[in-house]
Amino acid sequence: MQHKYIVSSVIGVLIVFLFYQSIFSFSTASAQNDNANSTIAGINITVDKELDIQALLASEIQQWKEQPLIVQGQSAIVEVPTQYIQFDITETVGKYMQAIKNPWYKPWAKVPGVHIPLDVTLSDELKTAFINAPLFNVDETIEAIREHASELKTTPVVAEEISFSKDMMKRVSFEIQEIHGNSAKLSSLATELNETTIMAGETFSFLNTFNDDLILRDEESVNFFASVLYSVVLQAYTSIQERHSQHNIPNYLQPGIEVEVSERLQRDFAFENEGQSPMIFVASVENGRLLIELYALENNLDISYSVKKIEVKPRTIYRLSPDLQVGEEKVLQNGSSGYRVAVYKKIADQASYEAEQQISRDFYPPQHRIVLVSSKEELEDTAEIENEEQGSNIEANKDSNHNTIDDKQDKDNDGVKDSTSNKEVKYDKGGNIITDQEE
């Protein structure tokens, strides 16, 4: 009797055990099927085995690391090396498998979809990536990177920054000039520019920044202001996107540094901040002078510009007049030299690095000297002379030869007339005379 009881008990236990196992197996399989929408770092988990899940995650992480990780703030843009970021795939998958299991006391329960991030470890060396971004709050930015990596996000990381102002920066360049133009309009331009911030990678456009049509129509004031601004940005870590020459030598700054801006002709002055930090302008008009300053975070670069010019001497042009006595002369226009000008930008650091780049080339034609002489004068040589009364050119010939006077100047000087064809001489953009063969 006792033997039968023992056998019955064992059989009962086996039946209960088998029933429990069947229910547990069913619920586990059901949970795995119901968790088809579960994700790790936004990756849909479509496999069941741990090793398969690990392989899936490893492949996705490898693809993510092949793309640059950009940390972007208002003051700087930094690319972070992905080798500073390590992922614990085993730990992550272990947490996932634990999360999708049903509790032992609810083998029949339906487990909802599971969504977990990757386990991420960041190297201490990551902080070195932000040396050139002093306005970043490093600790908070690193936490933002951790969260970003744990979800394998591909958008730029938004950096946490401290507020910045001119007082935190160093003056990297400035220019001060006596006012040329309308003082009130220049003051308005200075007020508009004052405390303007140009972020890293941002482009400044003169016409987009100053849109007062009344002021923009005052070409003298606008060109003077833009020229002073050009001198300032040439001494900073910028690249010139658009600049037009006035083609006349102004009585301020150097040739090659002047700028023409015209809303009507759509001639803009534009430059890009190539640095990794913002720039702030300070501008004012005081005591008849315009001052423009540029502030930026301190760096080890020394930036300057130089102007190299070649003089182009004027020629002398003679005109005939019957009203003058023989030997009498009258200067109608004094001559002045022109220039071929090239502007160079030099960038050097505290080490041995040094680079020089050509920014622009301009030609400023000379103003030729014009002298009125008597038409009664007997010429010893032929000369190309403009008759004042007829308004045309007359060649005075001797012995039927077509030799020309050197105009009391060096024959190599540039001129305005071709002495043999009476055609106007044309200059190319570099200031060279275009010959008939070149035309």
TrEMBL record:
Keyword annotations of the record: Signal
Region (Disordered): 384-439
Signal found in the keyword field: yes
Pfam families in UniProt: G5
Domain of life: Bacteria
Cross-referenced Gene3D superfamilies: Resuscitation-promoting factor rpfb
UniProt-listed InterPro entries: G5_dom, Glycopeptide_resist_protein
Basic and acidic residues bias locations: 396-429
Chain ranges of the G5 domain: 298-377
PROSITE patterns linked: G5
Matching PANTHER family: EXPORTED PROTEIN, EXPORTED PROTEIN-RELATED
Protein name as annotated: G5 domain-containing protein
